[in-house]
Amino acid sequence: MKIAFFDVTDEEQALFGSLISKQELSFSHESLTRNSITLAKHADVVYVRSFSQITKDILSNLPRLRFIATRSTGFDNIDIEACQRRKIVVSNVPHYATVTVAEHTLGLLLSLTHNIVDSSQQTKKGSFKEGPLSSEISNKTLGIVGFGAIGSQVATIARGFDMRILVYTTHPTSSKAKKYGVTFVDFQDLLQKCDAISFHVPLTQETHHMLNMNNIALCKRRSILLNTSRGEVIETKSILWALDNGVLVAAGLDVLENERELKQSNHDCLERRLMKDKRVIVTPHNAYHSHEALETILRISAENINAFIRNKPIHRVV
Predict the structure, then answer these.
(1) 259 given a catalytic annotation
(2) Looking at 58-72, 122-136, 157-171, which range is the least confident one?
(3) pLDDT for residue 266 is more than 80
(4) How far, in Å, CA of 175 to CA of 78, rounded?
(5) CA 61 to chain centre
(6) Tens digits of per-residue pLDDT, 210-227?
(7) In the chain, at which end, N or C, are there fewer CB atoms within 10 A of the end residue's CB?
C-alpha cells in the first residue's frame, strides 16, 4: 500500500517509518496542495494536517485514494461529502491535546489580566516602571461555549482559581453540572453575565460566526474574549468593533478567521489589525503544541493508518 505523508518533520518521518511496516511510504515537508499533489498521485492513503485543504478538486486528482488520516481533531479542511461519494474513509485524532489546549486557554486569560506580555516587553527595554494595574480572575465569572473534552477541562482548571463558571452547550446534563461545578445557561445569558468568554466548539454550519456583529454587543462591558477552537467561529470585524467600543477590554486568540490566507500573503486585512492591537494576544494556532500532545498525535495517527491497513478502521469521521 502506498502512503503519502504531508507536513511531516524529519523526526516524525523516522517515527512513522518505525511504526508502519511493510508499506511504501513517501514523505513531504509541504502541505498537500495543487502544487504538491504529484507526490500523492498514486497513493492509497494520505496523511495531512489542517493546513492541507482536501477539496473536491484535490480528490479528483487522487484516483487511487482510499483513506485520509488527519492528525487533527477537526476535519473542516476536508470535503467530507466528496469523500462519502468516493467511499474514502477519513479518520481523525480525537482528544489528543485536551489538557494542553485547556492550559493554553487559561494562560491567555492570565497573560491578559496580569499584563504579562506588556510588562515583560517593557522590562526588557530597560524600564522598571510599574505598568497598568492587573486584575484577579478569582471570583470572576468564566463563560465556556462548548463543553466537550476541552471545555470541561477548562472548567476543571478554572475552578482551581475560584472562578464561577457558566456553560452553553447543546447537550446540557445535570450530571455534568454537578461533576464540574458549572451552571448551564443559554448563549445570550452567557454573553451578558461573563467577565471572560472562551470558545471550545468545532467549526460547523451552526457554529460559523457564532459570535458576530448581531450579538457581540450583548457581551458584558469590558469582558475578555478567548478563542482556541476555530477562527471562523467568531466574525473578525465584531471583535474589532467590540474592542473599539468598550464591550471587550482584551482578547486572547490562538486562531484567526483567515489564518490560512495570512500564511500565504502579506496583504492587509482585518486579522492583521487584530494582530497589531496591543489589547490582543495572538498565538499561531499552537495551543495544542506540547511534547505530550505531539506524542499522542503521532501514536494515534499511526494506529489509525495501521487499522485501515488491517481493514478495521478506527476513529472514523467518514
Answers:
(1) yes
(2) 122-136
(3) no
(4) 35
(5) 29
(6) 999 999 999 999 999 999
(7) N
How many other CB atoms are there within 10 angstroms of residue 10's CB atom? 9
CB atoms within 10 A of CB 240: 18
Domain segments of the chain as ranges:
2-96+291-309, 98-282
Beta bridge partners of 224: 196, 250
The catalytic residue among 71, 104, 285, 315 is 285
CATH number for 2-96+291-309: choose from 3.40.50.720, 1.10.150.20, 3.20.20.70, 3.30.200.20.
3.40.50.720
Extract the C-alpha cell encoding 61.
486528482
Q: Is the distance from CB of 45 to CB of 2 less than 8 angstroms? A: yes
Q: How far apart are CA 278 and CA 266, in angstroms?
A: 20
- pLDDT of 81-100, one tens digit each? 999 999 999 999 998 999 99
Q: Which three cell numbers stand for residue 297?
A: 498525535
pLDDT at 303 over 90: yes
| Residue 130 among the catalytic residues | no
Give CATH for domain 98-282. 3.40.50.720
CA separation for the pair 269, 244 (Å, rounded): 17
Identity of the residue numbered 308: F
Average pLDDT of the segment spanning 146-158: 97
Annotation says 279 is catalytic: no
Cell of 50: 489542517
Measure Cα distances from 158 to 22, 164, 188, 197, 256 in Å.
47, 8, 21, 12, 24
pLDDT of residue 265: 75
- 230, 232, 257, 315: which one is catalytic? 230
